[in-house]
Design brief:
This protein has twelve helices and 13 strands. Strands 2-8-7-6-5-3-4 form a seven-stranded mixed sheet, sandwiched between helices. Strand 3, helix 5 and strand 4 form a beta-alpha-beta unit. It is α/β, with parallel strands linked by helices. The structure holds D-malate.
């Protein structure tokens, strides 16, 4: 008789965002005419930029002609995309990478979930609390429940805790942060790099939201910190930058300087378990770096950041404390004292028909907070804030 992976029993019932969708679907079935505004999952709403759509069409046409048809591509990604990533996302910020350090994939979620396979089963893992749940859940699935350590990222420590006294093997950092919308300074990242060098740790740096950073002093890549290539793997994505949540394209950087042969191991892992991202999608991603593509994508990011400002200002003027939303498309709303986030989710749905994400879903330190995303439509975002301010009574 087969036996299942008992580690799955350590997971909470449903993946956070699936659980939110399920609750919303139940509400919707009871209120078919309800005028819902979804500011829950961080999914983009603007359509793909025109240069991206043109690239998709052109590449699809190429695939339909015998002389330009392509089968399997290079597993690590096409050179035309990797060189554009290196040029625009790294060299432009003073970071040099070799093409074989960049691995194109179909999403950062998969990459941050899969990367833990490279490390020993009894590696200690340090994650933030609150945290993007994939870091925690993927390590629970792999049997590292007993090796997980949580580090509060709260208003109390300015969402930037000092590295702990104890050593940790793996450290997940996310900046700009999901869910709190806050960002780590150059000095804070430098302290983490120093800590990792001192303890022989690897930092797993999730920079999926770097395009939202507004302050030119803030680093976009962890490799802007000296020596970080010896201790850090970085994850980046086209999802939130260029509206690719439904198209799927991302990359991760596994530097050759990392000890333990991690670059070769990841290459081995990817070539065994993954056949690469489609040519059509990589052409679309390449178009993001054309002059017109960069302009269009910057305009999309600005649009979402204006939404963030509408939410931040609206809630602040109504007397609430909010964090984030300045260098990130997430607003972390501190609920009034004693208000729990899960019952509040239901109340917000009932009273305002607005969907958000309860802070408790991101960890115990998320209790008492609530996440709203700036990825909505402009007028609907305004409407949501208006409903919250007018209808909620405490
Ligand atoms: C979120 O809402 O946190 C994100 O959309 C989830 C994801 O990117 O996987």
């Amino acid at each position: 008789m087969f036996r299942v992976n008992a580690n799955y029993a350590e997971l909470s019932g449903g993946y956070l965002f699936s659980e939110i969708s399920r609750r919303v679907a139940v509400w919707k079935s009871g209120h078919p005419d309800g005028d819902l505004i979804r500011l829950g999952i961080g999914d983009v709403t603007l359509p793909l930029a025109e240069p991206v759509v043109t690239a998709l069409r052109t590449a699809a046409d190429e695939m339909g002609r015998p002389e330009t048809f392509r089968g399997y591509g290079p597993e690590q990604g096409y050179g035309f995309l990797i060189s554009a990533i290196i040029e625009h996302d790294y060299r432009a910020r003073g970071v040099e990478l070799d093409p074989d350090e960049v691995f194109v994939s179909d999403g950062s979620k998969c990459d941050v979930a899969n990367i833990q396979e490279l490390f020993a089963a009894d590696s200690t893992v340090l994650i933030g609390d609150p945290v993007y749940p994939v870091y925690r859940d993927s390590n629970l699935m792999a049997g590292r429940g007993a090796f997980l350590r949580y580090l509060p990222f709260t208003a109390g420590n300015g969402f930037s805790p000092e590295p702990p006294e104890e050593p940790a093997d793996l450290i997940y950092l996310c900046s700009p942060n999901n869910p709190t919308g806050t960002v780590l300074s150059r000095a804070a990242l430098t302290r983490w790099v120093e800590y990792a060098r001192e303890h022989g740790s690897v930092i797993l740096f999730d920079a999926a939201y770097e395009a939202y950073i507004r302050d030119p002093e803030l680093p976009h890549s962890i490799y802007e910190i000296p020596e970080a290539k010896e201790v850090a793997i970085e994850f980046r994505s086209f999802s939130k930058t260029a509206g690719f949540t439904g198209v799927r394209c991302a990359w991760c950087v596994v530097p050759r300087e990392l000890p333990g042969g991690l670059n070769r191991m990841w290459q081995r892992r990817q070539t065994t378990k993954f056949n690469g991202v489609s040519y059509v999608v990589q052409r679309a991603a390449r178009a993001v770096y054309s002059e017109a593509g960069r302009r269009a994508v910057a305009a999309q990011v600005s649009y979402y950041m204006d939404n963030a400002e509408i939410i931040r200002r609206g809630l602040s003027e109504a007397g609430f404390t909010v964090y984030g939303g300045v260098h990130a498309p997430y607003i972390w709303w501190k609920l009034p004292e004693g208000v729990e986030s899960m019952p509040f989710f239901d109340r917000l749905l009932e009273c305002c028909q607005v969907v958000g994400t309860p802070g408790i879903g991101f960890g115990h330190c998320g209790e008492g907070c609530f996440r709203l995303t700036a990825f909505g439509d402009r007028e609907r975002t305004r409407e949501a804030v208006g409903r919250i301010v007018e209808r909620l009574r405490w």
